[in-house]
Amino acid sequence: MIPIRQIARLSHLAAKFVGGADVHVVDPLVDLRSIFEKKEDLSRSVEERRLKIELPNVEAEYNEWYKAYEAWKSVDPKSDQISELKKEMRSKKSGLIGALSLPNFVHNVGKEERKMLKPTKHAQYLAQQGLLRIDKNNHVVHLAGFPAVVQKMLKNQILELFPQATLMSPSHFVRAAILEALNVDANNFIPFTDGSSSFPLTYLVGNSLASLCSPFLKSSFTDKNEWPIRVQSIGAAYHEKKNSVDLVYGRQRLKHCALLMSKTEPELDEFISSSVTSVASLLLEGLHLEVHARVVKGKELRNYESQAVVVECNGLELVRASRIGDYISRRLNICHAGATPEESGFVHMAYVETDIDRVIARLVDNLVEGKEPPRGFRDVVKQSL
């Protein structure tokens, strides 16, 4: 059990500052002026990602909104002016929305381009062997025989690489607020509703960064915790439909997710380095896959990442390690408590995700090409026959 103190439920959204239902971000810190004070860092973040954002305009609009916000906050809630001031603040909502849409600052970027993606032949091979069934209606695949056994073997092996991480079974559903706090495109996920008009906008995400962060929303970790805090989950992750339905692009794929939360940033780099090394070693030495690790270029960074290291096999991403810092915790209000206010603050995060189904796809590709399978793989195949 992880000792935490829940600050509040998911009730106060940024929507109260902008009106309407087009914004769902959990009540974030709205004083974002410090972001614009770091002009060089902010410009680099946008330029490295090759984003087309007019930062002077975003800053000007935000300052206008913040002035209206301060005027609204400074007035007694029972005042006759409160309604008009709130209306004025909401009329300038684009300022807050624009500032919340800005990406994380950049910590480090690589110079190496991603290798050309080598086409996969695993789906055709497994289907011919009767080991893979494609559900075209739902865009998912089902494994049988040795691929299913290998899948289970990999689950156990990867879990053993993170012995200090607490195993969680997070909800597969998250509110739109969580995705917006991560600053990711909700269109990449599957919307879910119970059919009622009052049901909040919700997405099916499965095992993911969003589902691991969600339980700690608006929480403060007590000083009884052993730092850093590590949690992990393993199971199906869900995505929106792609053109291909296989182990590489299926909308339901098996993934392992590990999240580290710390009080200091140096621990993030240690976690990323050790995690990438251990998982890459399993893929290279244990499974004989030709993997290569690289720091991604700025244009490949996700909005919440300050740096990312990927492990690829013939251009296909199998593992991604994200350095996040306090970008998400500030937007989800995830803190750590200290003996004094000065020792308290927002947690720093790092996240590692391994796509197990993609690993199986590349293992099968090697079989198709006639390469000698690793011994452990051969033993599993024999036992399943």
Order of helices and strands: EHHHHHHHEEHEEHEEHEEEHEEEHEEEHH
The helix content is 25-40%
Give the overall form. elongated
**CATH class category name of the largest domain:** Alpha Beta
Query: End-to-end distance, in Å?
Result: 41 Å
The CATH superfamily of the largest domain is known as Bira Bifunctional Protein, Domain 2
Rg over CA atoms, rounded to whole Å, is 23 Å
| Weakly predicted, low-confidence segments | 7-13
Into which percentage range does the β-strand content fall? Answer: 15-25%
Output mean pLDDT.
89
User: Based on the structure given, which CATH architecture of the largest domain is correct?
Assistant: 2-Layer Sandwich
Class by alpha and beta content: alpha+beta
Strand order of the largest sheet: 4-9-10-16-13-12-11
Separate helix tally: 14
- CATH names the topology of the largest domain as BirA Bifunctional Protein, domain 2
How many strands, what sense, and barrel or not for the largest sheet? Answer: 7 strands, mixed
The total count of strands amounts to 16
The domain tally reads 2
3D architecture notes:
InterPro entries: aa-tRNA-synth_II/BPL/LPL. By secondary structure, the chain is α+β, with helices and mostly antiparallel strands. 37% of the residues lie in helices and 21% in strands. It folds into two domains: 4-100, no CATH class; 122-384, BirA Bifunctional Protein, domain 2 (2-Layer Sandwich), CATH 3.30.930. The protein has 14 helices and 16 strands. The strands form four sheets. Strands 4-9-10-16-13-12-11 form a seven-stranded mixed sheet. The protein is elongated. The two termini are 41 Å apart. Residues 7-13 have low confidence and may be disordered.
